[in-house]
Amino acid sequence: MEKVKEITRKVSEEQLEKLQKFVGAINEGQLQLGGLEMQKADVLSQIAAIRSELNEVQAELKEEFGDVTIDIKTGEVTDADHPQD
């Protein structure tokens, strides 16, 4: 049985550089996206903590003022049954 010599084929240097450039750009984009996802997770965690603190403050205000509406701009308190127009 006769052995067949394999011929190695290659793309040109220019083609290889283009391929490497695009693959590198995709990898960099994926790396940046991963970083952004981590930042997103951190921000979501911070928002959850702030909401928890807000709930505590709202509970304190409800205990002190009862079932009321508080104007977030002025601090004015009105009965929840009679909202101000």
How would you describe what is shown here?
This protein is mainly α and 85 residues long. The protein has one domain. The protein has 1 helix and 2 strands; from the N terminus they run H-E-E. The protein has one helix spanning 13-65; strands at 68-70, 77-79. It has a two-stranded antiparallel ribbon with strand order 1-2. Strand 1 and strand 2 (77-79) form a beta hairpin. The chain is rod-shaped and about 95 Å long. The termini are far apart.
Brief account:
The protein is mainly alpha-helical. It has one domain (13-79). The chain contains one helix and two strands.
Mean pLDDT: 93
Q: What structural class results from the helix and strand content?
A: mainly alpha
Overall strand count: 2
Distance between the ends: 97 Å
Number of helices: 1
Radius of gyration: 31 Å
**Main β sheet profile:** 2 strands, antiparallel
Topology (elements, then pairings):
Layout: H1 13-65, E1 68-70, E2 77-79
Antiparallel strand pairs: 1-2
Summary tags:
85 residues, mainly alpha, 1 helix, 7% strand
